[in-house]
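Check out a protein:
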Amino acid sequence: MSKVKKKRLGFVMDMTPLVDITFLLLTFFMFTAKFKSESESQQKFTIKRPASTADTTKLPEKDLVMIKIGIDTVKHDTSWYLSMVNETDVVNLANEMVKLEYPSADMRTAQFKINDTNWLGKAIERARIVNPKAMFAIDADKRIRYWWIDKAINEMRKKRATSFNFVTDKRK
């Protein structure tokens, strides 16, 4: 004869020992864990910055291309003003700008008022062609937005005129 199986009504499990073991394991791993030391958390590369000092060099008397960024007092608009120092370079640059059909350019133009970055790039390129050893200098009004300086630097970079000076006043 077969035995009659009792139906299970449910069972009760005591969770206290399980929680105790869990906390013991947790504290064990917390105390034995090794945290990263300062040397391990530091970057794996170094950056060597160039040494610099306050540059008090004067701009050259010749072979200079000056890019002035100023606010027109009559029209109250900001523009780039490109000019060269040497008289022969001024004449040659005026010839080149006339060949490019720059608006308001003639043989007597010594300073070009430029409102477009495209024309600024062309003028920088022509200035480098006229005098390849000319240095560039940027002279900007302190009231203008940095956008104007950034655009001038980008155009100079495109035309490979990467060495230039900023014209500033001495601090008092």
Observations:
- The longest helix spans residues 16-32.
- The CA atoms of residues 117 and 151 lie 7 Å apart.
- Strands lie at 64-71, 78-84, 111-114, 135-140, 164-166.
- The longest strand covers residues 64-71.
